Amino acid sequence: MSLWCVTVALLGLLTPALSTDPGVIVQLTQQGLEYGRQIGIASLQQKLNSIKIPDISGSEDVSPIGKVEYSLSQMHITNLGLPASSLGLVPGSGLSLSISDAFISLNGHWHVKYLKFIKDSGSFDLTVSGLTISVTMGVNSDETGRPTVSSSNCAASVGHVSIEFHGGASWLYNLFSSFIENALRSAIQNQICPLVHDAISDINPHLKTMNVLAQVDKYAEIEYSLVTSPVVSNTFIQFSLKGEFYKIGQHQEPPFSAPPFSLPQTNGSMLYLGLSSFIANSAGFVYHNAGVLGLYVTDDMIPSSSPLRLNTKTFGAFIPEIAKRFPNMMMKLLVKTLEPPRITFEPNNVTLQANGTVTAYAILPNNTLEALFILNLEASVSAELHVSGLNIAGSVTLNRISMTLGTSYVGQFQVMPLNNIFTMILKVVVIPKVNEKLQQGYPLPAISHMNLVNTQLKVLKDYILVGTDVHFTQ
After folding, report:
1. How far lies 2's CA from each of 66, 87, 394, in Å?
2. Neighbours of 438 (CB within 10 A)
3. Start-to-end C-alpha separation, the chain
4. Rounded to an integer, what distance in angstroms lies between the CA atom of residue 191 and that of residue 202?
5. 105-155 pLDDT, tens per residue?
6. Of 13, 239, 361, 433, which sits most exposed with the smallest number of CB within 10 A?
7. Alpha carbons 253 and 239: distance in angstroms, whole number
8. What is the dihedral of CA 441, 447, 452, 457, to 10 degrees?
9. Which pLDDT score is estimated for 473?
């Protein structure tokens, strides 16, 4: 993975929406750039090791012996070093890479012919020192909303060239060494920038692996395409991503938009991700519309140690008409949302408010269902969130519930006495099912071979701030 791949991958880490405000903001800090520089220089060095010096031949008039024909062949690099480099931000533009004090050593064979019939040959070692390279890199987006990189303003300069000949007539070396040094200087210098441009171009296939449309499950996917151009400052590069759940194959916008937010000035981690409450609310919109925010509860889902059973005997104690009309029958409950749940982020607090219904059924002897009553349910839960691998996951706990009678098929009754039963059912059946799903998490924006380490998560007003370092594996 090249320098460019690591650097831009850390950044990112174009469908029109109701708002231009992103659901996700990603910032790459100076620490992230430094990590990219350390890894990338090794990759760039490997790229430069592929320099191929073509055979060189020519002739020069050398006093006092006259015309000397020479050729250099079988040249190959024996050592290459990039000891000093820096990768910096160019506000409003992109990145700049500077390499200084680089050196290249190579070995080859030389042949000369002079005085028309005298020939000589041997080997040589050439050292290029004081090599400098500078290049600027622009970061944009392609038609899929993924980052792309391009290079410009590349310059390479060779400082000092020295050559040492072996074999042949030693008196001849100094006579034509300056001509050979100049030829090799030009041959090396002309190849460096094309190789740098190739290294930058090689990053784009890696960036194509960015999960701009990440599947969560069989119902939903998340879009992470870029919605605005990157913002480059003196201290970070910021990318704005859409960050929105959609039903698979049907990108319907919700009747709300992402609230504007900005990340605080902070450092200490390579990468910061701001995840808006808009993402969670768009998830609720998708899953509610897909009809999957519902659960049938049966007696076998209630712990056997519980004295409260899901049958007409238990409920008949509170609603006598049930015991009278449906004696000794098992029951089934359908708990479902009436509208998408509402998620709010406040400092150190994530709250979910859900409005739904609970429909109670008696299971008749022929296994058909007979509706008994429908309760309107308002529930409030708190969430704990964490990063697991490349996913953000969580769990919820029940805060409170409020129930009112919607429809009764067994006469009027008081709902309050049933609170304990339904609170227990929500805590021991419904909430664990929700947490089972939440523990799987949903994917964060990433590219292949990317891992998050030393991750910290903080809940702020309207968004979650994730600070993390990044590690890339081969």
Report:
1. 49, 13, 35
2. 17
3. 8
4. 17
5. 999 998 888 888 888 888 989 899 999 999 998 888 888 888 888 888 999
6. 433
7. 22
8. -50
9. 86
Contact 175, 120 (CB under 8 A): no
Backbone φ and ψ for 392, nearest 5 degrees, come out as -105, 125
Residue 298's alpha-carbon distances to 321, 377, 429, in angstroms, are 21, 18, 9
Give the pLDDT band of residue 383 (cuts 50, 70, 90). very high
115 φ/ψ sector (left φ>0, alpha ψ -120 to 50, else beta): left
In the three-class reduction of DSSP (H, G, I as helix; E, B as strand; rest coil), residue 210 is classed as coil
HSE-up of 243 (CA within 13 Å, CB side)? Answer: 31
* C-beta separation of 309 from 299 below 8 A: yes
Q: Is 193 left (phi over 0), alpha (psi -120 to 50) or beta?
A: alpha
Average pLDDT over residues 272-297: 96
Phi, psi torsion values for 153, nearest 5 degrees: 55, 45
Q: Look up tokens 């509208």; give the residue.
A: 339
Question: How far is residue 40's CA from residue 269's CA, in Å, rounded to a whole number?
Answer: 19
Phi, psi of 113 (to 5 degrees): -140, 130
| Cα–Cα distance for residue pair 362/413, rounded to 1 Å | 17
Integer-rounded Cα radius of gyration of the chain: 35
Q: How far apart are the C-alpha atoms of 93 and 85, rounded to whole Å?
A: 20
